[in-house]
User: Fold these one by one.
Assistant:
Number 1:
Amino acid sequence: MPVAQSSGVLSFEDARRVVEEHASSLSPRETESVDLLSSSARVLAEPVLADRDLPPFPRSTRDGYAVRSQDVTRTPATLEVIGEIKAGETPDKIPARISPGQAVSIMTGAPVPDGADAVVMVEYTSQKGSEVEIARPVSAGENVVPRAAEARSGSVLVEKGERLTDAAIALAASAGRATLPVYKRPRIAVLTTGDEIVPIDATPGPTQIRNSNSYSLSVQIRQTGGDPVLLGIALDEPRQLRSMIEQGLKADLLLMTGGVSMGRYDLVEQVLAELKAEFFFTGAKIQPGRPVVFGRCGESDKARTYFFGLPGNPVSTMVTFELFARPMLEALAGMSPRKLRFVYARLKSEIKVKTGLKRFLPAILSGEFEDSQVELVPWQGSGDVAATARANCYIVIPPEQEIFAAGEFVPILLR
Ligand code: AMP
Ligand code: MG
């Protein structure tokens, strides 16, 4: 598949498409086998197949009476009860067939016998001795799930490349799988840059800042299915920066934070250019995160490693990971590609912004039941992690609109 050759500053959508295209070109990874429970949030490496029909028999979804629907088109109708079937009933206790005028008492999860095509809920019946009076008609198929209606034996229950959720793991369990093949976690190098950045166990001087980005990124990497490899902090000095970048390029993906803005000491792009990196974009028209850089570096085709230069402001780092690094990491983790989708929520109070950038602003989605509303968290800009920590979503503001009235529906990206 041809990969778009773009560079410079792109719109958000174009930048995202460039990343998606490169992500789709990544090849599958090594696999390992893990216990069913440990497979939670991992990515499935081979499809899980149904080892039998689901359900394996026509299953009653109610407690009641299995009947021939044509016997109860006119109600009340009286039928002869010829037996009782509970869930898990041994086959020899199940009547071979229900004949006209007959019914069988049946429980939820029990097999509906031949001849019967519907189940009347027990609430609409009254049994006296061996006769039951049916008060309401049922249509054919009501309260019965036909054999194999959910899945046929041998069909795919969970696709390869899916992240294993509760429902996927339930399906694997129902197919008797105690272990699952999953992709190995990709190793993601994290390199922080900045003369002012100090490790969290150091006492910062008056103008120094503790390294928080390596930690937020590590959490995002773990949540996406990668293994973070922390390379530490590079000074804003080309030689050390270069050797640390070279080290980072040995991983499956390199994430750098800081040093990609326009300042005199923002050296990341310069050093990457010296290393003959290809740049796919060197900025996106977004806020926070405008200076984000995406590219690839390495001597041979095989040894080429993708990298992101994420802006150092902590919220920019988090947001640009979500928007751009995540799809690459997901692909390295073996996940099938998926599109970024926003959901809509009603705005609680008016928003005014300047036009020109697509904005992802920290916000709180609150309210109850169908009455949810979203509002911006007051913040001091893209360095304000404290505000972002209070947020549970980002409001997505398109670049061309200035005012959003209270009550309007706006797109949001959940955190
Ligand atoms: P930069 O992108 O290098 O211009 O940095 C932008 C802002 O983010 C500056 O205020 C930096 O001090 C801050 N910053 C950069 N890296 C980190 C980090 N690892 N942890 C916390 N803040 C950072
Ligand atoms: Mg810096």
Number 2:
Amino acid sequence: MMNKKIEEAFNEQLNAELFSSYLYLSMVNYFADENLDGMATWMRIQTDEERMHGMKFLDFINDRGGRTVLKQIDQPKIEWSSALEAFQDGYNHECLISSKINDLVTLANAEGDHAASAFLQWFVTEQVEEEATALAIVEKLKKVGDNPVGLFMIDDQLGQRAPAAPAAAAG
Ligand code: OFO
């Protein structure tokens, strides 16, 4: 039987992960509109990864005999002034998600829910990577500034991102 406080908090996190997917999908559309096809490709893969994060929470809740409840997903921002602003928003969002994961670990430990704690460790590690990846792109975009050649070089590089292998994506 699933701890009710954990069940509720995990349902909230499922919603947060699906919102992450939705936010990045909105960025896909922005980049496509800006003819930054490489960034659109990169974000599309990110969108899929976020959905997979959500599914991990969904599976855990269901596996533990809890009840998954799908809540309304907020409308994401739809317009950005630059690629830098979009990736900066992405980085800020990842920092927010990291703090949510940390809070979940604190809650799981306080409730003595070792299964939930063990499950969350994958996300703790994942968030280190998520923040580092987004920040590295932000730093590169800051360096190229308004230089269109530099922007298109980064776009080309990001377009080479390969989708995560199914096993890795599923964690
Ligand atoms: Fe971007 O890691 Fe999930 O939300």
